[in-house]
Amino acid sequence: MDERTLTHSLHDQAAERLRELIFDGTLPPGSFLDEVRLCERLEISRTPLREALKVLVAEGLARHEPRRGCFVAQITERDVDEIFPVIGLLEGRAVFEATQNATQADINALERLHERLERHAEDGEINEYYAANLAIHEAFITLADNRWLAQSIGDLRKILRLARLQQLHAPGRLNQSLSEHLAVFAALKRRDAAAAEQAMRHHLLAQHEALRELARLHSSRIAS
Q1: Structure-model confidence comparison of residues 222 and 148, the more confident one
Q2: Residue 19 lies in domain
């Protein structure tokens, strides 16, 4: 492996590790991305780290401020309002195509994922529920077998992951989310692609409304 290839590999690995730290909340929205500390943490030099930061800026997960450096991006209320209707359409189409393509083996695999989802909901395990939820969404996208949908959804999902976990903390949202997922899966199992698409769009828009409700609750607490 030549030096150029090694540097490319290191910055790809660094970018992936930074995404993980952002998505798990270790690097929260708005936090400063200290290059010295990150180099120590990731055990890399400044060059691949700076290339990785450029990747995150291009993806919208970080922002660069001249003379100040990079910060983890903060998703705004406008971002949420603009992205959710779009991703609802895209993921709705993905589950439509997944319903048309799914084999019985695929449905059996999805059944196991939904059983995991139910267990985590019953136990109130939000982080584990979110992981199973994400695996189900990714399974639908894989079954759709449409690279343009996958690319578009992936780009938007990276931004929404800055806020999506928060909506599961809204009162009653965990059980509501589970009910929505089961409705999508029930439509897929009976091979009703149109109903599966509609159920998925409803699920994404309900996530949006849960985030808005959390924002309203937060505002009312501050005001009081």
Answers
A1: 148
A2: 3-72
